[in-house]
Amino acid sequence: MIIPAISYGFGNENRYNLPQIPESIQLALYKYDLYMQYRSELWESVIENDVKVQTVHLPIDALRRDFDTIFQIIVDGLQHSGCTHYVVHPNKGIKEFIDNFLATKLNVKLCVENFQWRTNKVYRTPLYIAERIMQDENLSMTFDTTHSEDVWFDHRILPFILKHTSVIHLSNRAKGVGQHMPFTAPNGSLNLVKFARELKYKYHWSGIVVLEYMEEYQDKLLKNYSYLKRLIS
Prior knowledge:
With 233 residues, the chain is of the alpha/beta class. It has one domain: TIM Barrel (Alpha-Beta Barrel), CATH 3.20.20. It is built from 7 helices and 10 strands. Strand 2, helix 1 (32-48) and strand 3 form a beta-alpha-beta unit. The longest helix has 17 residues, at 32-48.
């Protein structure tokens, strides 16, 4: 089963906020300070509106903070929404963060997000991430399409990547324009409409597909969400 969701940031100061909280979300906690500011109000709103929190995106600077501080966010998410998938960027300190997370033995999945390959950076590419996460059932991958070089979409390697992926961040990119564009963008470099269809009908993949767009494309999210649901229905 494929579960569609929208990346949503809570709070009026949050540039990823929407006029109305969607029914199915990735809770985008990109900024730790904003989370702490709205912590109580956020979870009250989630419960009152019966929002399905499919995944929580941990703060961008999570690995620069004390582990227990970030782990409390995971505990909050599990207690208040039942969310079992938590996305983290593979920044400096990711190895230690993973070790600390596994030591807690909390029954949730930490989903390491891929980025473009960089020298002397660990756990950036899908294969590098897969090599680590296949060692533990509480680790998984977030496959971000806009971060992924074309080679990772090759039909000979994609099934292996998807086998180790629980969350997909679906957005397009275009040279000279940028990343995290609508997945339907006519000027996008990736054919993500075909990709979304093939997730179900060719690869028989199950997991969470999150529309994660830059601020200037937020007005496209709800329409694209409805379209995504039709593509995978």
